[in-house]
Design a protein that fits this description.
7 helices, single chain, about 140 residues, mainly alpha
Length: about 140
């Protein structure tokens, strides 16, 4: 049996998501990116609570931007819409989960990977010490 920290697991998921994204395997990149995003969000929430500060996670910040610009952009309930696809890729059998999914999987994967990176940076104030992540950030102009 091996013991790993949630931080180590999140980084493994993030690096694997980026590797898959670079191979244009967007659906597994999306699900692993979303898993890393959730772990980093949980770590951020714990950090905020332990330090008695309120730091919103990346998805909440983005949702606030979309709420402020709803009249211009016309996108309602951003976070729910974005998470809909992530959840449909993980579950089946409920009425809301169709047999087929039509989505922009490339951009959804990109958003979840980005949010994982941002959630980590909001907590630690730096990128993970990993060449795959640093290279992805440089290639996408998000350093």
């Amino acid at each position: 049996m091996k013991e790993l920290s949630k931080e180590d697991i999140a980084l493994m998921q993030l690096v694997s998501a980026i590797d898959l994204f670079n191979q244009r395997k967007f659906i597994p990149a999306l699900t692993l990116g979303a898993a890393a995003e959730e772990l980093y969000s949980g770590l951020l929430k714990k950090y905020s609570s332990e330090n008695n500060i309120n730091i919103q996670n990346s998805a909440d910040i983005t949702e606030g931007i979309f709420d402020l610009t709803y009249n211009i952009i016309g996108l309602e309930n951003y976070k729910s819409q974005r998470n809909k696809y992530r959840n449909e890729l993980k579950h089946h059998g409920e009425a809301r989960n169709a047999d087929y999914i039509s989505a922009d999987f490339e951009n959804l994967a990109r958003f979840h990977i980005l949010d994982a990176i941002i959630n980590n940076k909001l907590r630690t104030n730096h990128l993970p010490n990993n060449e795959v992540v640093k290279s992805y950030c440089e290639d996408n102009g998000i350093c």
